[in-house]
Design a protein that fits this description.
- The protein is of the alpha+beta class.
- The protein has a single domain, classed as CNF1/YfiH-like putative cysteine hydrolases (4-Layer Sandwich), CATH 3.60.140.10.
- Helices cover 21% and strands 25% of the residues.
- The protein has 6 helices and 14 strands.
- A 6-stranded mixed sheet has the order 4-5-8-7-9-13. A 5-stranded mixed sheet has the order 1-2-14-6-3, with helices on one face.
- It starts with a strand and ends with a strand.
């Protein structure tokens, strides 16, 4: 079992991990630690993979909660675990409860893990370009504030996602970003492909966190598209004309008994 961490691990009461695609039991295009309930992967394999992730972070499998992600801006507070087979729709979840693992699934989108170091409030958000543009980050921070968090005490970590030199988009893609803020121009650069640009998703996500007053933003700086050995990638699957792709899992939790 292999997973990445950041300086969030220096928070004594917290555990977190950005898991790769390595160390699981799925096969084929889902090899091997696919944690998303995909049509062509066996549910028993996915449940085993999720249990492996839970075990790696000292959680019981039933304590890991994962929402049904829809690229929206809904945030849910978690007070107790739910049945992941019938999970509610949300793209971010937050909690103050020890022993609950907040999980977010991605395969190019940016997973964001957040923690208020003093108030012991944590969050996990799924930020693709649409969610980031429409305010998933701001909504997550706002929900944490409702629970008692202060932005100056929040640290965030951005996990593996499609990198700034890999995310090729059409020229007109940047229109909504520039309409929101002309300074967003800095997150785009020319692509070798005519009529296209390269978009810096992790840079854009970090900027939105900074604008919320979050000064500590860690980034594992891992490109999901270019590293097929370690990560699943929606874009890579599309470019290779594959009929599906797996999802890696990122998790944050408050240690029990702390």
């Amino acid at each position: 079992m292999k997973f990445l961490t950041t300086d969030l691990e220096n928070i004594s009461w917290l555990r977190h991990g950005f898991f790769t695609r390595l160390g699981g039991v799925s096969t084929g295009i889902y090899t091997s630690l696919n944690c998303g309930m995909k049509t062509d992967d066996r549910p028993t394999h996915v449940r085993t993979n999720r249990a492996k992730v839970s075990e790696a972070l000292y959680l019981a499998p039933e304590q890991l909660v994962i929402a049904k992600q829809v690229h929206g801006t809904t945030i849910l507070p978690v007070t107790k675990p739910w049945d992941n087979d019938h999970a509610p729709e949300a793209d971010a979840i937050v909690t103050v409860e020890p022993g609950i693992g907040l999980g977010v699934l991605t395969a190019d989108c940016a997973p964001i893990l957040l923690a208020d170091k003093k108030a012991r409030i944590i969050g996990a958000a799924h930020a693709g370009w649409r969610g980031a543009l429409n305010g998933i980050i701001e909504s997550t921070v706002e929900e944490m504030q409702k629970m008692g968090a202060k932005t100056e005490n929040i640290a965030a970590a951005i996990g593996p996602c499609i990198g700034p030199n890999s995310y090729e988009v059409r020229d007109d893609f940047k229109g909504p970003f520039i309409a929101r803020d002309k300074t967003n121009e800095r997150f785009f650069k020319k692509s070798p492909k005519p009529g296209h640009l390269l978009f810096n998703l992790p840079g854009y996500v970090a900027s939105r966190l900074n604008r919320q007053g979050i000064k500590t933003v860690h980034d594992v700086q891992q490109d999901t598209l270019t590293n097929a050995t370690s990560f699943f990638s929606n874009r890579r699957a599309f470019l290779k004309s594959e009929h599906g792709f797996g999802l890696q899992l990122s998790v944050i939790s408050i240690k029990s008994g702390n």
